[in-house]
Amino acid sequence: MTFPKDFLWGGATAANQCEGAYLEDGKGLSVPDMLLGGDVDTPRTFLPKTDPNAFYPSHEAIDFYHHYKEDIAMFAEMGWGVFRLSINWGRIFPNGDDAEPNEAGLAFYDKVFDECHKHGIEPLVTLCHYEIPWNIVTQYHGFYSRQTIDLFTKYARTCFERYKDKVKYWLTFNEINIPLMGGGHSGLGNLYGLGLMQDEDINSETPIPLSDLKDNPQMRFEALHNQFVASALAVQAGHEINPDFKIGNMIAHITTYPLTPNPKDILENQRNMHISNDLCGDVQVRGAYPDFAFRYFKENQIDVSYITEADKEILKEGTVDFYTFSYYMTNCITVDESAEKIGGNMSMGAKNPYLKASDWGWQIDPDGLRYTLNLLHDRYPDTPLMVVENGFGAFDQVEADGSIHDDYRIAYFKEHIKAMDEAVEDGVPLIGYTTWGPIDLVSAGTGQYAKRYGFIYVDRHDDGTGDFSRSRKDSFYWYQKVCQSNGADLG
Ligand code: P53
């Protein structure tokens, strides 16, 4: 058996995609609460006010807020050692800038973490998973304001102090590199990631597709910089509050290959990998911007005078203890503009003729995971790695007897776990694996329930019907064997 004895197996979720109860116990509105649903061809739209006639998937999500005991018991039944979840910032500071935290919100996560420990499950907590309080968007332009650095570090400190004996593993920002991904991701990155929206969009009376949100690259890069500083300050605060904390970063690692051996494609792919994946990773692991970033900033007319000497010091002092990333797919990069694209309205690259794709155009590439783990270990040789999201969004069919035969999902996971096994064999220090959406939840990209990821089915649908009941898919029993055998029994 290759996986280390204390390897952490589990699953990953985000508060806004699961909890629902969007105004309960004093929670304030946060960014996802303003987003309507879409599908593979229709981008999610955003409406900067709550319309009583519209369906906002996050408002009820899968009602984890009231089902957490049942859900965590089912996670334990699978034999998990770790559960990745996020704290919804707006439950703790409903407006983001409140003087005092909301006790009811803090108490909810006490109960959730206690429930995890009751079952021997270690929580891995993301502080900010696309959950910036809406008031920070409207009053501060999100992370574009340096004041938001203070608001975030206060929130982080509050969580670290409160849960210092219940949570050991923390992540600062989910997929911090999303604002660098381009394509349909600029709206997603600006709004979801940075809480940054231009005034003309904030005041819109009609729904705006996420992909059409106005982008201001100067503001986007300043906001991202402020987020780096906020992350580094949180890492420092966490280590001061409990030196045993392990605090990681989180990167959406969309690995890309050159579409052809044309050296122009090779160079373009290297540039893409540098900017999309490595820039953020380097800042958070090595504590400084990489050299290539400055050429990119110059070419994009970004004035980087906001990167002060004092900030550089903070980045250097706030490097992470481990590197985590999401891995779903790979894409190809080419200078040939006529090459066939992949990925629906969120397209991020060219189609790879050797790979099959999901119904959402995400190309399935288990070998790419082994390749990625090796790339990351080459780049950050002293840093433990963890895959904190990997999964297969698919339409599921419920049989007459209630069973769900999701062999396609089992096949996806089996090949990706084999790839991790190979990487461990290659010498990669991989410490854990949390699958994305172990229980069906709301898709971040499309807002759909129909894009299901779970081992556990949730009876809830895009038309707002369903009773939120949970049931086990075939993949549930399969993953149970994987966790219980420490990855030896892949069926
Ligand atoms: P959905 C794009 C590309 C890679 C990962 O995504 C992404 C996204 C954003 O859609 O996000 C992560 O739900 C994210 C999760 C999200 C998951 O991937 O669009 O951290 O919140 O649900 C899957 O299928």
From TrEMBL:
Superkingdom assignment: Bacteria
Xref: Gene3D superfamilies: Glycosidases (3.20.20.80)
SUPFAM superfamilies: (Trans)glycosidases
InterPro entries membership: GH, GH_1_N_CS, Glyco_hydro_1
GO terms, biological process: carbohydrate catabolic process
Alphabetic keyword roster: Glycosidase, Hydrolase
Cellular component, GO annotation: cytosol
GO function terms (MF aspect): beta-glucosidase activity
Pfam families: Glyco_hydro_1
Family per record: Belongs to the glycosyl hydrolase 1 family.
Cited PANTHER family: 6-PHOSPHO-BETA-GLUCOSIDASE (PTHR10353:SF296), GLYCOSYL HYDROLASE (PTHR10353)
Protein name: 6-phospho-beta-glucosidase
